[in-house]
Design brief:
heterodimer; A: mainly alpha; 8 helices; 2% strand; globular; B: alpha/beta; Rossmann fold; six-stranded mixed β-sheet; four-stranded antiparallel β-sheet; 6 helices
């Protein structure tokens, strides 16, 4: 029997290998996120000057929308050949399957963010890297919170016919606190004396992460087997 | 954990107000092949899902030898399942599919098992080709080896003969006979009586969730 970490590692490697073959999720989410930022740049940047506070909102909208695409596709792969059933029968802790899918999605979202964050910083003249560690912390905590809920819902909706519509309908209301905390935390980073507030938003995001990941780990097995 | 029989005792399963299985009882012994027969919606796949621990009975018991079907990881490690969908990743090669499942089952001698699986599936020449490019028969052979890679005690197959030509059917029958000879409890569902002629040791017929023969 494979241990928890071993099972997570095997699932992540498999997902990354499949993604390396198809590049389907990375390219579609990246294209969508870049397009999103470009459209907003045309709307909110006039004569080389961006509307104040726009950068943080646009960054998190791009992350959330492109992340939703990635979440939907990640489980679509397990649906085609019903491979999810094979994984549920395998002698692994079933929450390891959830964590494996979550880590795979986080890696892909991190790759998208690695392109989108500098792009937003450049196009909106936003000094996102002045406090790089705090920015990375906000991005990491916000992405984990968003993907933790999204991974659970994407798995739950796998067998429903209207899953593409239902995923955002269910996901956004639940993750609104995460997105708001990400937006406000990033906006605080861009303010002259906003560091304490940015740290407070980061702490809130970490609290959301703990709550969402714990709930998802707790509910994944019963939800997937009944 | 090991067991030498699978026993359904008064197993009932409902989905909301619909009763998919109604007080089904039968036993399958190690080294036998049991066919579940019945029309669409008779409850065959539900019964397989319960045997695979993917569903719990609403009432009644499933016993793996003397052990209750509690769905533990150790028990699941003794079960192999092949669905109508083949549980394979089309983007990966045959070798990668087998390797992935060998690793997820925590097997130690992964490469030896992968090589044996490829040999049994007669796919050594196509081992590195993506499974998405295989014929139905090739995928089916690979899927059987995927399900057997951990040498399960209980092998469950849902409509395994669907879409296969006669040569592939005979290859599958041969593989199932080998599994039976190795002491595996094989349970399969089918509509196709001709495909299981001279293969099965017992048949169980379900009509509207009830066992009738």
């Amino acid at each position: 029997m494979t241990g928890f970490v071993g099972a997570v590692s095997v699932i992540v490697r498999k997902d990354l290998l499949v993604e390396a073959r198809t590049r389907e999720i990375l390219f579609t989410t990246l294209f969508f996120a870049v397009a999103c930022v470009l459209v907003f740049a045309f709307g909110f940047v006039r004569e080389g000057r961006a509307v104040s506070d726009a950068a943080s909102g646009i960054l998190w909208i791009a992350i959330a929308f492109s992340g939703t695409l990635a979440l939907g596709r990640a489980f679509e792969r397990e649906r085609h050949g019903e491979t999810l059933r094979a994984l549920l029968i395998a002698p692994i802790d079933r929450p390891a399957l959830y964590v494996g899918k979550l880590v795979g999605i986080l890696i892909l979202m991190a790759a998208v963010e690695a392109v989108v964050v500098p792009m937003v910083a450049l196009m909106f003249q936003a000094p996102l890297f002045d406090h790089a560690l705090l920015m990375i912390g906000l991005l990491a905590a916000g992405t984990v919170g968003f993907a933790a809920v999204g991974t659970l819902f994407a798995a739950m909706l796998m067998r429903t016919r209207s899953r593409d519509v239902m995923l955002p309908v269910l996901l956004y209301p639940i993750t609104i606190p995460v997105i708001i905390a990400g937006v406000r935390g990033t906006a605080a980073l861009l303010e002259a004396d906003g560091l304490p507030m940015a740290r407070a938003w980061l702490a809130m995001l970490v609290a959301f992460d703990v709550m969402f990941v714990t709930l998802a780990l707790w509910t994944f097995e019963p939800v997937m087997t009944e | 954990m090991d067991f030498s029989s699978l026993r359904f005792v008064d197993v009932t399963r409902t989905f909301g107000r619909r009763r998919a299985l109604s007080r089904v009882s039968f036993t399958a012994e190690a080294g036998t092949i049991t066919a579940l027969l019945g029309h669409n919606g008779a409850g065959k796949s539900t019964l397989l899902s319960i045997a695979a621990t993917l569903l719990q009975p609403t009432s009644g018991r499933v016993l793996y030898g003397d052990h209750p079907g509690n769905g533990s990881a150790v028990l699941r490690g003794r079960i192999g399942m092949l669905g109508h969908d083949l549980y394979l990743y089309p983007e990966l090669s045959a070798a990668e599919n087998l390797r992935f499942f060998a690793e997820i089952y925590g097997l130690t001698d992964v490469e030896r098992r992968v090589a044996r699986g490829l040999e049994m599936a007669k796919l050594i020449d196509r081992a590195d080709d993506a499974v998405g490019g295989y014929s139905r028969g090739m995928r089916q052979r690979l899927a059987v080896e995927r399900a057997l890679i951990h040498e399960p005690r209980l092998m469950l197959l849902d409509e395994p003969f669907t879409g296969l030509d006669e040569a592939s059917r005979e290859a599958l029958r041969q593989r199932l006979r080998m599994a039976r000879a190795a002491g595996t409890i094989v349970i399969l569902t089918t509509h196709d009586i001709a495909a299981i002629e001279n293969l099965t040791d017992a048949t169980v017929t379900l009509v509207d969730g009830r066992l009738v023969a």
